[in-house]
Amino acid sequence: MAQPTRDELLKDLEKIFREVLNNPKIVLTPESSALNTPGWDSIGHIEIVMMVERQYKIRFGLGELQDLKNVGELIELIEKKTSA
Predict the structure, then answer these.
(1) For position 76, which CATH number holds?
(2) What is the model's pLDDT at position 1?
(3) What's the angle, vertex CA 42, arms to CA 38 and CA 48, rounded to 5?
(4) Which domain holds residue 23?
(5) Helices (DSSP H) in 21-83: which residue ranges?
(6) How far apart are CA 10 and CA 53, in angstroms?
(7) 20-24: long-range contacts, CB 8 A cutoff, minimum separation 24
(8) Residue 55, pLDDT score
(9) Which of 2, 28, 29, 40 is found 20 to 30 A from 70 (Cα to Cα)?
(10) pLDDT value at residue 67
(11) What total of structural domains would you count in the chain?
(12) Cα–Cα distance, 2 to 9 (Å, whole number)
């Protein structure tokens, strides 16, 4: 399976965020974070992580998630996990 591009990952994440946060108008950028994305709270974060793990068939360790600051860092972590 080919490694998805950053743009593809961003679009996939946007779909997940829109579904989880029940907001079809969300537009993600690499700088998007819980601070600047409406509805992204701790419960939403857990659901987002679970959907990402399911979609890409990966597992995140707690330590990996604690340090994430934005969507760009999440994309980098997905790339690292899917290329392993």
Answers:
(1) 1.10.1200.10
(2) 56
(3) 80
(4) 6-83
(5) 42-56, 62-66, 71-83
(6) 15
(7) 20/44, 20/47, 20/48, 20/51
(8) 96
(9) 2
(10) 85
(11) 1
(12) 12
Residue 1 placed within a domain: no
Q: Angle at which helices 42-56 and 71-83 pack, to 10 degrees?
A: 30
pLDDT of residue 62: 83
Choose among 62, 61, 57: nearest CA to 83.
57
- pLDDT by residue for the chain (84 residues), tens only, comes to 578 899 999 999 999 999 999 999 999 999 999 999 999 999 999 999 999 999 999 999 988 988 889 999 999 999 999 987
Residue 75: exposure state from Cβ atoms within 10 A (0-12, 13-18, ≥19): buried
